[in-house]
Amino acid sequence: MTKKTIIDLSENPKFDPEDLELSSDYLEFITENWHTKVPETRGYTVCPMQEATHVVFSELDLALAEEHGENFSINELYPIKKVEESGGTFIVDDKGQAIIGFDLYIPCEYLKKVEEKEDTDYSNVALPSNVVSLSDYKNRKK
Length: 142
Known about the structure:
The protein is an alpha+beta fold. It is built from 4 helices and 7 strands; from the N terminus they run ααββαβββββα. The strands form 2 sheets. A 4-stranded antiparallel beta sheet has the order 1-7-2-3. A 3-stranded antiparallel beta sheet has the order 4-5-6, with no helix packed on it. A hairpin with a 6-residue loop joins strand 4 (81-82) and strand 5. The radius of gyration is 22 Å and the shape is elongated.
């Protein structure tokens, strides 16, 4: 885990908490916590609402939502879907009901799938004459 920055508000009275929420350190920290607590989230990263493809609800989120959270499971990934007419979003609860505007009354964490990096095979790439591959260099030294 990376070292986190501590912000002293007495030195920075104009600090805006929104800056912290969108910082990469904050998102990385929250993502790591979700990965530890809920292994199913390991293929996802915490993100802003506009980028989200899924949501997850913690026990506290559903407790705060009271009756609105009754048909959701704790730490379950729910895909976000788009309402074609309005462009709004909805999720489907455990009973199969579409819930529009869920984020207005149920706290949640927004997630998106992590893009997998392609492993590129460079073994057949021709190198310029002045560049020696590390494996060739090691073999020459022997």
